[in-house]
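This part of the workshop introduces the protein records we will be handling. Getting from the letters to the tokens is the skill we practise here. An example says more than a description, so a record of this kind follows:
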Amino acid sequence: MEQFIDNAVSFSFHYGVAAVIVLIVFIVMSMLLAAVNNFRGGMDINKYPQFYRDYDAIKGNRRSLRNYLSDTSGSLTPETVKIKDLQISTANYGGIFTDVKGNIALTPWHGTVSSEAARCQVEAGARAIVFDIWPDPSNMTQPIIACMTDTSETHFLRKGENWWAANGLPATHGTDSTYSSWKCLTRNKGNAAEILKVAVDTAFTGVQREDPFFLILNLHGILTPTYLKNLAKAIENAVSGRQLRVSGNQTSTMCETLVSVLLNKVMVIVTPDIPTGSDQESINRVLMASDMKNFINVLPTPEAEIVFRPSNIGMITTKKYSDCAVPTTKTSLSSTSLCCIQPSIGFVYTDNDNGFKPSTYSRCMATGAQFVAVNVFGSAPNKYTGSALGNIGGDPDSVLSGPWKADFGKYSFKLKK
């Protein structure tokens, strides 16, 4: 009898352990399935219609800047409105289809670089795109587009992906130590020339073809003469026939620039990294001594930066800049100059809620910055999947039914409040 009881207890114990193991496996598999379903291709279009976007149809239903001004007030025209007084729908992650990163261990990549991503970003309504451009580590004379790990953030880092070190470059990458330890976060790299051209070509077709278009180019890495020559060729090829005349004054101050000057044109805004031991003026001189001088419309200055992180928006609203109408009066930077707020593309997550922390999209728009860059393929909080992953990741492309829809509707420009 005692042996029987011992056997029964042993059986019950092992059965219980097995049941717990089965339960754990079930929970893990459910989480994996939920994570997989967070991707567009894994969803039931009938159950989650908000995840599927016909970008061609979205583009066809939009209205032009001229329409917006006349719809808003019969007295407003491109000849009476200044560009500094508008906010422009702006895409972050230029040329990159991002993944929804509900769990970093399951989705380590930020996404895939593609010229089709740039096309979709324009069709979604972007009239400005922020492109992050690096010298190709396998050929430092060619410009490429990719995501790299932002060393100022905390990340899930993978080994063996230090592009600079893998290609025999110095540990400090010449004089630039800022990005020497960046790691590639996209599955691939994309040819900048091809992606820029697709973006511009798409921008000047359809109902918004007359509207101004803005290329905001963040330049990372060493800016050698040969590299800058090739980048200039890429820009020339992209903006051919649409180039905004270079005035010789590349400051971001836009006190007198009317919208009419920019119609049917591309404005090229360039924001270079500042290597250790250098300064803004020195880097600007390097750029203006290269072939890039023929294509740069706007550069930052020591007094007026252009691209800001959401954590630094106070720099935009601080009233220390000369007012356009009354120079002795101090006003905010966004009241006189072009400003762009761009969440880091090298952060852990790609969704907009996390990207705009510690601020929010709405607060960034309230600064009056002309460009507030959102991830078009990003997400709002996860409201539909019921996933155990909570609000991280969320609904792909839902930004098109969220911030942009609320702020811009069928237009791509809006007057500042």
User: Anything to note?
Assistant: The longest strand covers residues 128-136. Residues 32-52, 153-181, 381-394 have pLDDT under 50 and may be disordered. The longest helix spans residues 2-37.
